[in-house]
Amino acid sequence: MITHPKRTSSSPEQNRREFLGKAAKGAALVTLFAGLPKGWVGAAYASDAPETTALKFGIIALTDCSPIVIAHERGLFKKYGIESTVMKGANWAAIRDNLSSGDLQATHMLIGMPIASTMGLAGSPKKPMIIPWLLNRNGQAITLKNDWKGHVAADPKALKAFVEKAKKLGEPLTFAMTFPPGTHAMWMRYYLGAGGINPDKDVSLIVVPPAQMVSNMKIGKMDGFCVGEPWNARSIIDGIGFTALSTQDLWKDHPEKVCAFLADFADKNPKTVKACLKALHEASVWLDSLENRPEQCEIVSRATYINCDPKTILGRLQGHYDYGDARKKEDDHYMIFSRRNCNFPQPKYCKWFLTQYRRWGLINGAPDYQGISQQVMRPDIYAEAMKELGYEHGGENHEPETLFDGVTFDPKGDLEAYARSFATNNLRG
Q: pTM of the prediction?
């Protein structure tokens, strides 16, 4: 005879107690999991630490390398898990090549360099690079030889007569910048072009490393140059030149240097890049307290970095501008490192540089202004790093910019029409 287990029936009250018991256990588990650190996955943790911890940073001997140097010297890279080494390069081409080869993982760069490398312009090997951080604004200058004191200053039209006279004698004037698609080249070209002077046809435009500008002017190899500080101030101290105009006179709060990375390195090491940006943020805020600038000058003037007298750097960093030709100015748009949304990698700045590359024949035909700007400028990485710090930045800026010649650049306008609008140009295609 087969016997069947006796069936039992649960009362409504028993069912209710069982349900409440299971719900309580579930709530307890939710509470337990909620208390676990962010990144807990199963029985493991997804680390927030940098993927690559040992990084070599490149710099050139210029005052605007300061955020990288200060982040290194004050232990800020280490605070965010980065073991930093700072290496001084001989010139911008060497810096570019060392980043491209992987000998450097991040570097101080002219804003135009990652753009040119991504596109393969002006002799740059095609190597995609990104800009998630602007290091500074302002603080460069155009220096002219002493012979022109009282004759030429901020208005380049006064220079044209000297240019034409030299051309007739078969001895064109020579001007120097630091790298063909870099900022100093564009500031010098814009200045000369505003005076009706074609930098490729009316004068000789040469490349000289920043630290060699003063010595080359001293021996008569050139008539003027555009470079970052402290070399413009140094030319006045050495009695060989004067400042025609600062670059903030040319374009107030213009972009200047950046911290650049190879695009593929950033893709593989997103936490590393964000760690670098967090350290640079702290260094930049520290730098923009004027009470810290004497200490900044003492640090960055050392032989391993700029190798100059700290006093040469300090004056212009505090806004005290002696142009060397009897003009003096207390400039409230001296070099900044953090304020006024300084560090946000604005896509419009890439667009402006592309218009100038187009204007001067570095690009044949209209470039993809929007696409290249999105590829190189990376506000998404910047915004994510700052969100993790709890820092509220100013966001993207689409406002037009008007330069010293009264011409306005509208990043929302017809960029190709703007590039073609300048009377002095070397347009191709």
A: 0.89
